[in-house]
Amino acid sequence: MLDFPVILWFRQDLRLQDNPAYHAALESGSPILPVFILDDDNAGLWKRGAASRWWLYHSLSSLNKSLNGTLAIFRGDATKIIPELVEAACAHAVFWNRCYEPWRIARDSKIKTALEQSSIAVKSSNASLLYEPWTVSKDDGTPYKVFTPFFRKGCLGRGEPPVPLGLPHHVPTFFPRLKQSLHIDDLDLLPSIKWDKGFHDIWTPGEHGARERLGQFLDHGLKGYKEGRNHPDRENVSRLSPHLHFGEISPRTAWHAVRHAMEADPTIETDGDCFLSELGWREFSYSLLYTHPDLPTQPLQHKFAGFPWDKNDKALRAWQMGKTGYPIVDAGMRQLWQTGWMHNRVRMIVASFLIKDLMLPWTAGEEWFWDTLVDADLANNAASWQWVAGCGADAAPYFRIFNPVTQGTKFDPDGNYIRTFVPELAALPAKYIHEPWTAPANVLKQAGVEMGKTYPMPIVDHKAARDHALAVFKGL
Ligand code: FAD
């Protein structure tokens, strides 16, 4: 006969290592009922997109395996499901790790109040941030608006982030899976049309895959990260973003692993510092979302509220499909479509192109990324789009308009990245690959390129678009 259980509610923390809610549940000494709820009912606009659903399917499968198949799965409104589960299983406590999306904060506080009113203990912990957003503020108590003081003084001024928790001392007893639990397949997470072929070659969702990815990065990517992270054809970035988003690995684990590597090899100090500050940008995004819950829909700088954006479905479609006629933009958008991920440098280029060359609203790009990125993350996505648009905190100034040709030439000088994702241009010499419309007819012919047929002509003239954007932005 099992004792009354406690519920361990998994959300954005799909791992067992360095999982404080799991530790706390174990310490209760009661059997653990592990639960996941696909709660699209409360997510509003921010239901998971298609690529995220693909990831979630595989990540849940991996977690369920680690839990010996005991993960109880539900779909629907968590404010109803959690109290029902407590009653059905006679649970006496619920443990979870905190989430920071405004809709989740509102939902969780509702659940907490209801449970506590019924004398059920609730314990929440921090599993996904280095520093809780409410603990990082300026001396006068207001939130930071500029990254460097936020990170240097607000975060690091508090000391190094806590070290990850070791493996739990207790051996878990899992409560038998409830019979009303669904199977992962019942969640309809996988696409009906098979666009996910390219994903399997690149990604291994789940805790094990996350640790492997970190190991590869430490061995092969970290050295040279500072410079190499700008080059989309190099292996210098970690690609940890979806693993971090789904909580398959904690930022504390990544942080301290890099710190150890820096201690072992002083020549990578600047590379390591640069990586740690990228984790700092993630913290900054979460802080912005926490202090500005409407960050995903409203510009932080109010003067941008009435901005005269264009409406041009044809141009938006060309951008989404990677058919703008600018090879670096098209390579990025196709990398996104084929792999569910895009290199950071190229994210900045394609975002600048959408906003400043096409004059389309940043929210249109944010929504497309939300649907197509495996690392789609409300805080990072919204903060980054606002940064590129120039309407966010500590944002790129509006007059910084990336030239897609010079960006390509600088960061993909041999065109290797373009050749991978825009194969119809693969045979062009590097000299022309960033602006194929300037190539002489015989060069195009030899490379099998017919402008306007095998590859589109540019859908806008960058120089004219830039002048127009500057004039409009200046008018704000
Ligand atoms: P690395 O360079 O290895 O960095 C390590 C980690 O630091 C990343 O995994 C990520 O968690 C964090 N990080 C790195 N750069 C940033 C940044 N600029 N802002 C916040 N955190 C950062 N990142 C997301 O995780 N989800 C998104 O939805 C997202 N949307 C973006 C949209 C736009 C328009 C832009 C310009 C950037 C966006 N980013 C987003 C930030 C960044 O591009 C990705 O985090 C990064 O490319 C992920 O690759 P990586 O793990 O190899 O990064």
TrEMBL record:
Protein name: Deoxyribodipyrimidine photo-lyase
Keyword Metal-binding assigned: no
Any GO molecular function: DNA binding
Family matches, as InterPro entries: Crypto/Photolyase_FAD-like_sf, Crypto/Photolyase_N_sf, Cryptochr/Photolyase_FAD-bd, Cryptochrome/DNA_photolyase_1, DNA_photolyase_1_CS_C, DNA_photolyase_N, Rossmann-like_a/b/a_fold
Site feature (Electron transfer via tryptophanyl radical) residues: 309, 362, 385
Domain Photolyase/cryptochrome alpha/beta: 4-130
Pfam family, one: FAD_binding_7
Gene Ontology process terms (BP): photoreactive repair; response to light stimulus
Keyword annotations of the record: Chromophore, FAD, Flavoprotein, Lyase
Domain of life: Bacteria
Keyword Flavoprotein: yes
Cofactor: FAD; (6R)-5,10-methylene-5,6,7,8-tetrahydrofolate
UniProt remark on cofactor binding: Binds 1 FAD per subunit.
EC nos: 4.1.99.3
Entry binding sites for FAD: 225, 275, 375-377
Sequence similarity: Belongs to the DNA photolyase family.
Catalytic activity line of the entry: cyclobutadipyrimidine (in DNA) = 2 pyrimidine residues (in DNA)
